[in-house]
Structure to design on (893 residues):
């Protein structure tokens, strides 16, 4: 048996790939190229040998800074392109070998150009705005001046009566206006200031002017038809044209200061109408010129941006790669002669030849005289964990990794999870109608796989797409379990033959009181369809599903224990086998394995024994006669034996292991407790890796109490956990009951109820409500719920039996893995 | 009798599935072992589910009592 297990090849995903610690000695001239090629290969995880240095003390800090500066410029270009609303499709042209300095100069030139163009167009736009405002003021203020000219000889009271509307302007006069004596404009020194101001500042402006001039002013305003772009906020704001009539020099300075404070722009409007018209014509022509210039400027800038935009994504990728290469180079050490860089890293053992080839290619390409030295080192610390997954197993591996990354070379639960996870999901979801819907969804995702993998999806869609194979398997198992539970949207079918139950006599008179009888062999596949809708359906199915959950749970926990046995065998720890695996197996199976056996015997014999009673009284009074609870001959002595075995197993898993460990430790270090500091230096004739020198030696003090407490916790956890974990599997029953009941309610109380009416509208509404309820509650909520609970069963109940999960994941230096928003 | 026959059917289906997996994706001994493990696990899970439900119905303690329908 042992030989057979040993002769089997190592299963693919079961244990982490073997990793080796390698040391690279790279001559400086080929270092950049080496790292670039290694990045393309993506199978080496570098160790940071300069972890204690700050980012500024490192060798290549300057280059990293330059890369950072370049990526800032690239981001600037991207912003500008987005703001200008251009869409550039990348033009694929093969550029010659990429050189950092060359790209830097190019980017600096482009940036300079774009910044210059931006500032020019800023200035132009400002001038354009001013002219536009001037034009508006001219157009609207002329209306005031005409009217005030006409009214100069009129009465004072007419000032607040406006008889004509020119572009819908409102004439509002100040309150003390009536006492003011109107004087002809030119003779009495009544002057005016015209300008334009933001609409929201108007009221305060007017009040301020009123207070400052003590009411000796006339304020006219009219809104402008056009909106003007505010240069600061780049938004269109509404402006109001105003004209202030006043007298006196002091008032003028005050008003001008107030205008400045409120950001109102004043433009001089000539009183003469011909001059006005001339000025308006001039302004209009200048405006059109400026518009043309602005357009030309924008087009020129857009051209420059497009030419940048073609290569933008390529440049961004290149700069990111360069930065990654320099970051990696920063992890290496210069050796004594300053001519070589020394690096250490982890790589999978199978990749050693590939890395060797890559390094040789890099040496050749960089025309270096000296080759790269590449050799294996002894590792002090534990290697990273690496599983080679394909797209099917990747999702399951990630689910397991979410709980904890497996320790180096311990058994990987993902191997069994590929099947047991969808299976347990299906036990809780069992309905082949819903399973078919899930299957359709999964097939859609699988069919559009290639297209969807290149697109950028939203976070929800990305999760769904990432788990497409999980959903596919879940759907297949759900269909199977649905056929077993015989539920198609909660409706049973007679697919596998007729029911095993029939009426006692032809009149079926007592079918509603005593029930049917079973007249032949059980229904060949799944639950008999006669159960649906009967009064005893729930008691029967509950009993069935609870026992099923216990049986499935004990099987999965035993599988976990067996995996712990294989782990112990792999690591050569016979202590674990003798003092942990065996007592654990005995304890679990003598109590709960026995319960499973009783369940099966009760089913096979149809005995009326009460299993609760049997189990509880096995503990309370084991020597008592069983009476009608006896399922098989010899049950009482067997129970006593099993109870004794369980009692012995508890101290067996608690005491021997810490004492055995202490004995081993004493034997190993006998007489060496004082010699540790001296001899350990001499002992190591193997080259010690750079990084380990920093850690120092791992000779820890053997702390017996700590080991003992650890073992105590482990044992108590197992003993108490065996009860709670077994009970935890009852969630399989609970969720499948919930699913079945929800589905029955929706079918009977929505669909059938609505179908009972003759009205087509009610039927349609019923179908719609049924569809929505099925899709959202059953397909989405129940899926998530069953997903979560199956996950919990795996993480805690299954993996708790053997999984340590304190490893770290293998993260190779690879260009493919550099994320998009990694700045 | 029906139990044994159907169990045999499950075993046969499992063997056929394992052979199909071996024929379709034959990628070296370690990967083959992985595929075999997956097929075996799936067969065992499916058989257990069926067997539990079948055995539970062999000697039932209660029978369906029809409920009053309107």
């Amino acid at each position: 048996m042992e030989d057979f297990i040993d002769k089997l090849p190592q299963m693919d995903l079961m244990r982490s790939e073997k990793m080796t610690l390698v040391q690279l000695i790279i001559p400086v001239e080929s270092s950049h190229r080496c790292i670039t090629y290694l990045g393309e290969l993506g199978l080496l995880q570098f160790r940071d040998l300069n972890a204690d240095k700050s980012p500024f003390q490192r060798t290549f800090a300057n280059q990293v800074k330059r890369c950072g500066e370049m990526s800032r410029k690239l981001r600037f270009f991207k912003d500008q392109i987005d703001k200008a609303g251009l869409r550039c499709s990348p033009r694929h042209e093969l550029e010659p070998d990429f050189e950092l300095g060359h790209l830097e100069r190019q980017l600096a030139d482009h940036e300079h150009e774009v910044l210059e163009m931006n500032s020019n167009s800023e200035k132009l736009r400002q001038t354009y705005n001013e002219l536009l405002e001037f034009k508006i003021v001219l157009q609207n203020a002329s209306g005031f001046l005409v009217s005030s000219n006409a009214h100069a000889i009129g009465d004072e009271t007419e000032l607040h009566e406006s008889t004509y509307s020119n572009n819908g302007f409102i004439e509002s006069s100040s309150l003390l206006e009536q006492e003011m004596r109107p004087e002809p404009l030119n003779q009495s020194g009544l002057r005016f200031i015209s300008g334009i101001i933001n609409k929201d500042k108007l009221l305060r402006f007017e009040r301020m002017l009123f207070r400052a001039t003590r009411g000796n002013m006339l304020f006219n305003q009219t809104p402008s038809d056009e909106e003007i772009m505010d240069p600061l906020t780049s938004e269109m704001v509404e402006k109001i044209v105003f004209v202030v009539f006043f007298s006196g020099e002091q008032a003028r300075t005050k008003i001008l200061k107030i205008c400045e404070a409120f950001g109102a722009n004043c433009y001089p409007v000539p009183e003469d109408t011909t001059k006005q018209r001339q000025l308006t014509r001039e302004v209009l022509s200048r405006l059109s010129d400026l518009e043309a210039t602005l357009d030309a400027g924008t087009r020129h800038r857009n051209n420059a941006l497009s030419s940048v935009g073609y290569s933008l994504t390529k440049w961004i990728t290149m700069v990111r790669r360069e930065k990654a290469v320099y970051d990696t180079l920063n992890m290496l050490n210069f050796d004594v002669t300053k001519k070589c860089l020394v690096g250490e890293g982890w790589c999978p053992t199978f990749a050693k030849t590939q890395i060797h080839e890559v390094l040789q290619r890099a040496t050749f390409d960089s025309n270096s005289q000296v080759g790269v030295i590449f050799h294996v080192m002894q590792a002090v610390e534990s290697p990273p964990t690496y599983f080679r997954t394909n797209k099917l197993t990747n999702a399951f591996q990630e689910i397991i990794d979410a709980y904890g990354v497996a320790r180096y070379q311990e058994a990987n639960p993902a191997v069994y999870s590929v099947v047991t996870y969808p299976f347990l999901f299906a036990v809780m979801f069992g309905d082949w109608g819903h399973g078919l819907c899930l299957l359709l969804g999964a097939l859609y995702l699988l069919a559009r796989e290639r297209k969807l993998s290149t697109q950028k999806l939203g976070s929800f869609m990305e999760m769904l797409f990432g788990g497409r194979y999980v959903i596919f398997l879940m759907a297949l198992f759900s269909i199977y379990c649905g056929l077993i539970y015989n539920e198609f949207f909660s409706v049973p079918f007679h697919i596998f033959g007729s029911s095993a139950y029939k009426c006692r006599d032809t009149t079926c008179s007592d079918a509603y009181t005593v029930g049917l009888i079973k007249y032949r062999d059980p229904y060949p596949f799944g639950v008999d369809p006669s159960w649906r809708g009967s009064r005893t359906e729930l008691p029967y199915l509950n009993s069935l599903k609870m026992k099923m959950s216990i049986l499935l749970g004990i099987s999965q926990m035993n599988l976990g224990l067996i995996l712990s046995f294989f782990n112990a065998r792999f690591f050569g720890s016979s202590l674990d086998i003798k003092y942990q695996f065996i007592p654990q197996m005995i304890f679990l199976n003598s109590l709960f394995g026995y319960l499973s056996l009783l369940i099966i015997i009760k089913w096979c014999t149809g005995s009326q024994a009460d299993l609760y009673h049997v189990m509880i009284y096995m503990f309370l009074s084991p020597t008592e006669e069983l009476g009608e609870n006896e399922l098989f001959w010899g049950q009482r002595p067997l129970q006593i034996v099993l109870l004794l075995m369980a009692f012995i197993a508890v101290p067996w898993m608690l005491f021997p292991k810490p004492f055995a460990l202490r004995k081993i430790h004493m034997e190993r270090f006998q007489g060496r407790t004082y010699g540790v500091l001296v001899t350990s230096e001499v002992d190591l004739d193997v080259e010690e890796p750079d990084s380990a020198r920093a850690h120092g030696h791992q000779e820890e003090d053997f702390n017996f109490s700590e080991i003992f407490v650890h073992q105590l916790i482990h044992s108590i956890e197992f003993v108490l956990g065996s009860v709670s974990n077994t009970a935890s599997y009852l969630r399989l029953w609970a969720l499948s009951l919930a699913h079945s009941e929800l589905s029955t309610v929706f079918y009977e109380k929505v669909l059938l109820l609505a179908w009972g009416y003759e009205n087509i509208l009610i039927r349609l509404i019923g179908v719609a409500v049924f569809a929505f309820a099925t899709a959202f509650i059953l397909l989405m909520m129940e899926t998530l719920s069953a997903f979560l609970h199956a996950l919990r069963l795996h993480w805690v109940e299954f993996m708790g039996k053997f999984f340590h999960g304190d490893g770290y994941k293998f993260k190779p230096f690879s260009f493919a893995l550099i994320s998009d928003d990694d700045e | 009798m029906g139990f044994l026959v159907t169990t045999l059917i499950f075993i046969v289906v499992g063997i056929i599935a394992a052979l199909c997996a071996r024929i379709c994706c034959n990628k070296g001994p370690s990967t083959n072992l992985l595929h075999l493990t997956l097929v075996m696990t799936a067969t065992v899970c499916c058989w257990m589910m069926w067997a539990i439900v079948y055995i539970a119905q062999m000697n039932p303690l209660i029978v369906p009592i029809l409920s009053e329908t309107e």
Notes: Chain B touches chain A at residues 1-2, 6, 29-31, 33-34, 37-38, 41-42, 45-46, 48-50, 52-69 (CB under 8 Å). Residues 1-56 of chain B form one domain. Chain B has one domain: 1-56. The two ends of chain B are 40 Å apart (CA to CA).
